[in-house]
Amino acid sequence: MMTDSEIQTAREDLAAAFRWSARLNMHEAVSNHFSFAINDDGTQFLVNPAGIHFSRVKASDLVVVDLDQSLPAPAQGGPDPTAAAIHGAMHRNNPQARCVIHLHPKYVTALSTLENPTILPIDQNTARFYNRVSYDIDFGGMGLGDEAERLSAQLGNRSIVLMGAHGAMTVGQRVADAFDDFYYLERAAETLMTAYASGQKLRVLSHDVAETTAQQWAEYGFDLRGAHLSEIKSILDVEEPEFRH
Known about the structure:
Elements: H1 4-23, E1 33-37, E2 44-47, E3 63-66, H2 81-93, E4 99-103, H3 106-112, H4 124-127, E5 134-136, H5 146-152, E6 160-163, E7 167-172, H6 175-198, H7 207-218, H8 224-239
Parallel strand pairs: 5-6
Antiparallel strand pairs: 1-2, 1-4, 2-3, 4-7, 6-7
Helix pairs in contact: 1-8, 2-5, 3-6, 6-8
């Protein structure tokens, strides 16, 4: 179990990620969900309650879901039903996924609708995800019941699931890891969809170059993910300091 200090840090990190996602227009108002497991087996996790706009989420707004207890209804401050289902299944079945970020941003969602949604390595950002994404194209509804369980099985040993006709999920040990992956995932999808829209043939990187680039991203000698979220929090400390409360 995490300490109170560690849980507060996770709350603040999640609140910052929510607010920055809103600034980047990667949100759907009061829909979509971020969560963070606070015990080892993932049966207890922080998640956003139903009905709060991403741009207004504060650390104290996040609720603790305990999968061994009854959930409060959304009207009583509980989570959205799809949040409880999808994130509950993901944390319970993948305890290594401490943080789970689920979004439906413009370009990732558009890519998810293609018959072949593979992120082709055509530049440095798209190559970051070469052979690093699980593709789920068997959309079966909004993520309740059996669909949530099915989705949780798609992750495998990877940290990203592109969800056909739906959006995507990223997971990580830290909020910084999952958020940074999603930020660059949307950037990669934007580049790829823009290139597709040109109508010209894509110049796809070779396997060797794409794999080398992906490994270089993974083994980069500086904590880019941590620095990314740290800078976001520094900006919010000046412009929206209430996010920590």
